[in-house]
Amino acid sequence: MNLALMCRNADLYSHKRIVDAATSRGHEIDVVDHLRCYINITSLRPTVRYRGEELPVFDAVIPRIGASVTFYGTAVLRQLEMMGVYPVNESVAISRSRDKLRSLQLLARKGIGLPVTVFAHRTSQADEILDMIGGAPVIIKLLEGTQGIGVVLGETQKAAESIIQAFGGVNTNILVQEFIKEAGGEDIRCIVVGEKVVATMKRKGKEGDFRSNIHRGGTAEKVKITPQERSTAVGAAKAMGLNFCGVDLLRSNHGPVVMEVNSSPGLEGIERATGIDVADKLIDFIEKNARPGKTKTRGKG
Ligand SMILES: Nc1ncnc2c1ncn2[C@@H]1O[C@H](COP(=O)(O)OP(=O)(O)OP(=O)(O)O)[C@@H](O)[C@H]1O
Ligand SMILES: [Mg+2]
Ligand SMILES: [Mg+2]
C-alpha cells in the first residue's frame, strides 16, 4: 500500500517505529508535515500541495497531530478524507477527543464509567461545585493542561474552595472531579487498535505524587487488565470514533473510570514496558481495514 504518516517530527520514537513497521511489511510510506501543507479549496477537486507537488491519493493516512496544532492538522486531514484517503483516525474524531468537555459528555452518553465531574465557567459558588461532587478531596484541572501540569489536588474543603476561586480569578475554564484516592497514584494506559486492547501498562507516580505522568517522574510496567477494564477501554474508543488511541483508566471503588482518550498515543513507553510491537499491530489493522473513502463523515462535518 501507499501510506502517509502525518506528523511534525519524523525523528520521534513513535514515528520511526511506524515507518519501520510499514516498510518491513512491504509498504511505501511518506512522511507529511501537516504544517507545511497548502490546502487547495477548489470546488469538487480537493487537493493538498506539499513541497511543490500535489499529494497523491494515498491508500491510508496515519495522523499524528499534536494538541497545539489540532486546528490546522485536522483541516489537512479533512482535505485528504475529501480526496478519498482512508484515515486511521478521522478528523472529526480527533477534534472531539481534543475537547475534554465534549469527550466526557460523549463517554457519559454511552454509559462509560467516569469520575464524577463538574465543568464550571463561573467559579464564584465554589461550595456549590464541591457539593455536586460530594465534597473534598477533589481534583481540579485546567481544561487545556497537559503532562500533569494544571492538575491540582484540593485535599480539604477550604483548600479546594481557594483553588477554584484562584482559577476563577484568572479566567480559565476548569473541571472539578471526584478524587479517586484508591487508585493510589496509579493509572492504566490501554492501547486500543480497532476493537481490541493490544497493550496495557500501569503508570505509577513519583513517591508522594498523586499524578502518574511519566513526564512528572513516574514509572511504567506492564499489567494485566480485567474483562471489565477491557470493555471500558474498547467502549471509550468506540464512543470517540477512534480506531487507534490510548485510553487512560483509574481503578476506582465503583469500577474502572476513564480519565482521557488520547488520539496520538506515544509508543515508546508502552512498547518498552510490554515488549509488544504496537506499530506492527497498527499497520496490520490498516491492511485489513483501509478502503477508499471509508470514513463516517468523508470530511462532511
Ligand atoms: N480524578 C482523579 N483521581 C485521581 N487521580 C487523578 C484524577 N485525575 C487525574 N489524576 C492523576 O493525575 C494525572 C494527570 O491527570 P490527566 O491525565 O487528567 O491530565 P494530563 O496528564 O495533564 O493530561 P495529558 O495526559 O493529556 O497530558 C493522571 O495520570 C492521574 O494519575
Ligand atoms: Mg489530558
Ligand atoms: Mg494524562
From TrEMBL:
Named cofactor requirement(s)? Mn(2+); Mg(2+)
GO MF terms, alphabetically ordered = ligase activity
Supply the Pfam families for this chain: RimK, Rimk_N
The EC number(s) given in the record are 6.3.2.-
Cellular component aspect of the GO annotation: ribosome
Question: Which residues make up the binding site for ATP?
Answer: K141, E178, F179, D187, R211, S212, N213
Give binding positions for Mg(2+) 2: E260, N262
Q: Which UniProt keywords apply?
A: ATP-binding, Ligase, Magnesium, Manganese, Metal-binding, Nucleotide-binding, Protein biosynthesis, Ribonucleoprotein, Ribosomal protein
Q: Where does Mn(2+) 1 bind?
A: D248, E260
Which stretches make up the ATP-grasp domain? 104-287
- InterPro entries from the xrefs? ATP-grasp, ATP-grasp_RimK-type, ATP_grasp_subdomain_1, RimK, Rimk_N, Rp_bS6_RimK/Lys_biosynth_LsyX
Q: How is the cofactor bound?
A: Binds 2 magnesium or manganese ions per subunit.
Domain of life, per the record? Bacteria
Which residues bind Mg(2+) 1 per the record? D248, E260
Q: Does the keyword Membrane apply?
A: no
SUPFAM superfamilies, per this entry? Glutathione synthetase ATP-binding domain-like (SSF56059)
Which amino acids does the record list as binding Mn(2+) 2?
E260, N262
Q: Which family does it belong to?
A: Belongs to the RimK family.
Concerning HAMAP family, the annotation shows: RimK
Question: NCBIfam families from the entry?
Answer: PRK10446.1, rimK_fam
The protein in question is named Probable alpha-L-glutamate ligase
Q: Where does this protein come from, organism-wise? A: Hyphococcus lacteus
Which gene underlies this protein?
rimK
